[in-house]
Amino acid sequence: MLLARLVLAPVLARGAALGALVWIVVVIVGLGQALLTSAVVPDPDLLLRMVAGALGVGASVAVPLGALGGVAGGLGGMAEGRAWLGLRALGVGGRAVAAPVGLFLVAVVAVWLGITHTVEPGARALLRDARIAAAVRVVPVEGRVVRLGGWAAAVEGGVLHFAGGEWLGYARTWEVRPALTGVVVALGSGELRSTDGTSRARFATLEMPVPLTGSAGKVHASERTTPDLRRQLLVSAALGRDTYERWILWKRSLLPLCLLPLGLAAVPLGLGRRWPLLGIVAAQVVTLWGVVRVADQWVGTVGIAGAAVATLAAALLWVALAWRGWADG
Prior knowledge:
Layout: H1 2-36, H2 44-80, H3 83-89, H4 94-136, E1 146-148, E2 151-156, E3 159-164, E4 167-178, E5 182-194, E6 200-211, H5 226-239, H6 243-271, H7 277-323
């Protein structure tokens, strides 16, 4: 019990500090991106929803980085402060230290699983819905161009003139309605023509779907919680295009599980003081990120099982290399 407290106290302190710093940075970047892609400056209620969404997305990055940094930095601090030297003099080896660290990592894995399966996708959906709500509040006014995704419009003499994609035209009435991944612009009493001048048509009513910037016109799998994604997979499987969505579902469990071997690899790297804190965390993150990106591209060829094995192998390789030949293990 005393050993666990001695080990976990610096690990938790360093992990909390690093995790909080990463969380703040990711939230600021995510919120800034949401504001830049928003059709209008959001009202306070929408801004709060965007902040909540950014916090949820940021947690998915802050939790694992905080855990890895806590293990490497906390144990590195023990080595620098000679606490590790004292433990070695008492006959305590690296495996004894790894036991409480492993329990800490298991708890973090459980938290991260909850984030990847529910919190993060729900937060991404919240950000999308907030941007859609902001777009619905766009009101075209006389003499001012407004933009919705790839659609631009301006009012002149009480008539709405618009352009989007390969079409442009005008309408005497208009309304912006929310849709699943964007907005629908309902137009009335106007004319539509192609930009090359080959087609022209008058209409009494016309509805134009306008996907917002960053949206492909459909709900991305990353914006679906796991229960929702499982339901979507039934549809995608029937259409024969479920491989990538199923891989995303696998990654929600696979990546948190990879944290356990990566964190255990940080034990000898931290206590051995071979690398600085940022070097350890950066090397582990870049390695796993690179393998996952390759797996994303090759999953259609090697299959989900192959992609999962490659990802786990990268994490396990860190354990093997870090503990191999460590004299204090």
